[in-house]
UniProtKB/TrEMBL annotation:
One of its GO terms (molecular function) is pyridoxal phosphate binding. Coiled coil: none annotated. PROSITE patterns: UPF0001. Belongs to the pyridoxal phosphate-binding protein YggS/PROSC family. The keyword Nucleotide-binding does not apply. This is Pyridoxal phosphate homeostasis protein. HAMAP family: PLP_homeostasis. InterPro entries: Ala_racemase_N, PLP-binding_barrel, PyrdxlP_homeostasis.
């Protein structure tokens, strides 16, 4: 096996073990491979290993790779901070946008819908830190943002997304996230996705109910410092 195949298999085994330990079915967990800063050739190799869900955090890189690899039929998840003026370009190629954190972005994604286009899956990104500069809506704004998404005909509210803060045990942060996820479900009962868990904290995320993991370096290998 190549290094990539070995790392992918090792992560999948870790996911299976963590699911078993949590009394969960690993089949209900989607493993998204975050390919940011890696070339399209690596994404092609992942596709050859059976990967279907891939994640990117920068609009330009997402669009370039998604266009180059369009024939592969991958599902592209956008997980980065998104400027409203880039909403249209992201909507054209993404299956899901995990990082919806403000009304203006909801409106921009809604306005970018083409007539007859199927709804775009979106998640409310929640800021688990006290630092407003981090991406995500503050917890006291969750319901209002969820309601705005639920009222947008071309958007499908799927759930919540968050990144565990530095300097706090991820399990504690993900426990809070599970409570926020329930608040979003009080607005939209079908919004059952919890996008949480990266290379370093996927076990804790699974224990707290994550349905979508965003795994980068543990699978792709190291990327440069920008990531
Ligand atoms: C880069 C990134 C990931 C993956 O991080 P790793 O530590 O490489 O697994 C997950 N989520 C977001 C939002 C990211 O930007």
């Amino acid at each position: 096996m190549s290094g990539l195949a070995e790392r992918l298999a090792a992560v999948d085994a870790q996911i299976a073990d963590a699911a078993r330990a949590a009394g969960r079915d690993a089949g209900e967990i989607t493993r998204i491979v975050v390919t940011k800063f890696h070339p399209a050739a690596l994404v092609r190799e992942l596709h050859g290993l059976g990967v279907v869900d891939v994640g990117e955090n920068r609009q330009q890189e997402l669009v370039a790779k998604a266009e180059e690899l369009a024939p592969l039929g991958l599902r592209w998840h956008f997980i980065g901070q998104l400027q409203t003026k880039k909403a249209r370009a992201v909507r054209r190629v993404a299956s899901a946008v995990h990082s919806v954190d403000r009304d203006r972005l909801v409106d921009a994604l809604e306005a970018a819908a083409e007539p007859g286009e199927s709804p775009l899956d979106v998640l409310v990104q929640i800021n688990l830190t006290d630092d407003p500069a981090r991406g995500g809506v503050a917890p006291d704004g969750i319901e209002a943002l969820a309601e705005r998404i639920a009222a947008a005909p071309s958007l499908a509210l799927r759930g919540v997304m968050a990144v565990a803060p530095l300097g706090e045990a991820p399990a504690a942060a993900f426990e809070r996230l599970a409570g926020y996820a329930a608040r979003v479900r009080s607005v939209e009962p079908h919004a059952t996705w919890i996008s949480a868990g990266m290379s370093a904290d996927l076990v804790e995320a699974i224990a707290c109910g994550a349905t979508h993991l965003r795994i980068g370096s543990a699978i792709t290998g190291p990327r440069d410092a920008r990531g």
